[in-house]
Each structure stands twice: as structure tokens, then as C-alpha cells.
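Field reference: sequence -> structure
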Amino acid sequence: MKVHPFSDLDLDIARTRIVLSLLAMLSLYIDPTTAGGLFHLTFYVLATLLCHLTYSVGTYFLLESQIGKRWLPTATTLLDLFFAMAIAYLTEGQTGPSYVFFVFAIIAVGVRATLRAIVHITLLGVALYLVVISAHNRMSGAYVMRAVYLAIAGYLVGFFAQQRANYEARVRELEALAERQSIARLLHDSYVQSLAGVNLRLESCRQLLRRGCPDDASQELKELQLGVKRQFDEVREYVRSLAGVDSNSTHEIADISADPEIRINGVFDGSSRLGERILQIMLEGLRNARKHARATLVRIDACEIAGRVLITIADDGVGFPPAADPPWTIASHVAETGGRLSFSENGPACLEIEIPKV
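Structure field:
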């Protein structure tokens, strides 16, 4: 289960930035009111637009190749404002594309941030624009009103972005509520009734034993065991379907008679929540090895290195089938902690897990 560190939205913003750069270059080239005139770009304007295009393409490839880190959205926001100010300084006049660049910077923040962050970016953009027109000695009413219109546009973007986030949160709540109700109905109508039936049959077995009918009780228990096993398989498949994990019948056959030896070696410290999470991962790894690996020995090692807990779970069993995913329960624990999981695809199973101590 590979998790992409950037959403598709970030890539869409990067693609749009490239289109913006090309369209701005074209619009300035055919705008007769610019300093360069019709079908002409001055050297500084062309150099600035080419730098913006290079920055746009570079950002896209950083996102696509997963090289960027958490600082990339903040860096792109500041660079968008910087290029908007530079283009405003070089092309400010009766017309110019700088307004579009400022609005793009605000919208790029608006699709993934709160109203407060959008207001801050809008105010910063307005301040930068006022600095530009002040440098051009154009603090007249017409130019100042452009800053006012930019502030209004930024507020509208932020308002609608906040409303969209509110509606999305409400939709998620309604979807979760509907899903919980569906699960509750299924548990009540199916599995709870099955447990009630198990309780009645166990009471029946007790009555048979009291009347001195061990053979009948044994037969009843055998049938009850088969029924419980069927219900167990159904519950397990249902849980895996909720987790979005495909069933693999050849790999999921449990060997309840297996009882491999276990060797545990671990020294680490941290919060109780971290310790509970690590112990759950170890326990799930041991259960998987006992049920599915047909192993005779399971080794679990845990140590702390550079603020991260390293966990290795290895056995001498049959290993994972070709093109298998890692155990989804362990993978979900690791994903929730922001850790990393890798496993061997050939030979006996060996899981290597890194969990940050945060």
C-alpha cells in the first residue's frame, strides 16, 4: 500500500501554474499597450517570464518525483507572490497580467487552506502591489482601486473556500453516520443473532452433559464449532472489505495448530501510546506468522536509532505470495504514525518497520 505524499490537487496547481506562465507570455506578446509594444517583449519582462516558466516546470517535476518536502507549498506561495510583484513592477500600466498572478497565488492557497491563511496571503499581496505602484509614483485613485479590487477578490476566494470546506466536512459526517448505521444493522441482524444462537446451543450442550449424554453433546459441539468457524470467516471477510483489502484465499488459510517458537529482543522508550502501538504491531506480526506462514521460528527485534523505533519481524515460513501487499493491519498502524514499512517478496517473510517517536 503506497501512499503518495502529495495530493493530486498539488499536481493540478503545478500544471495550472505552467499554463499561466505560457498564457501570460502570449498575452504580453500580443498586447500593444505594454512597454515593448505589439509582438514584442522587453528583455527584463521576457527574462522574468522565462524564470517563472522554469520555476513552474521545476515545481511540477519535484511534485511528480516526490522529491519535495512539507516546505514546498509554503515556498511556492511565496514565490508566486514574488513573481506577481516582479511582473507588476515590469509591466504595470493601463493593462498587465500582474493581477492574474496575484489572484492565482490567492486561489492556490484558497483550495487547500483556511480563510485566515487566505486573508493573510491577500493582505500580503495587496501590500506588495502597493509597494510596486508606489515605486512607479502611481499612487493615484485608479491604481489604488486595483489593490482594493484585489483585496475583495481575495476575500471572496477565501469565503467560498471556507464554505466549501464546511460543506465537505458536513458531507463526510453524513457519510460516516450512514456507514455506521449500515454496520450497526448488519451486526444486529446477522452476527448478534448468530451469537445468541451459539449461546442457546451451548446451554443445550450443558443440558446433554447433565443428562449423561456425552456423545450427543460432543456432536452438538462439533456442529457448533463448524458454525462458529463459518461466522468467523464471514466476519473476517467483512472486516477486510471495510478496510478495502482484497481477499487472497491461498494466503489467508489459517493453520490453527501451528505454534512456532518466538524470540523477542527489544529496547526502546517513549510514550505509553507509542509503546501500545509497537506492541500491537508485534502481536499482529506474531499472529500472522502463526496462522499463515507455517513457520517454526518467529524473531521480533526492536531498537531505537536517531529518534525512530526500528522493528523487524521475521520468520522461517513460506513467505508472501507474488505481488502481495503487506499485512493491512500492520500497514495501517504504520501509516497512522507516519512511519515506513517494507517487506521481502522472496523467501521467508521479513517485515522492516520504522516509526518516528513523535
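Note: The chain has nine helices and five strands.
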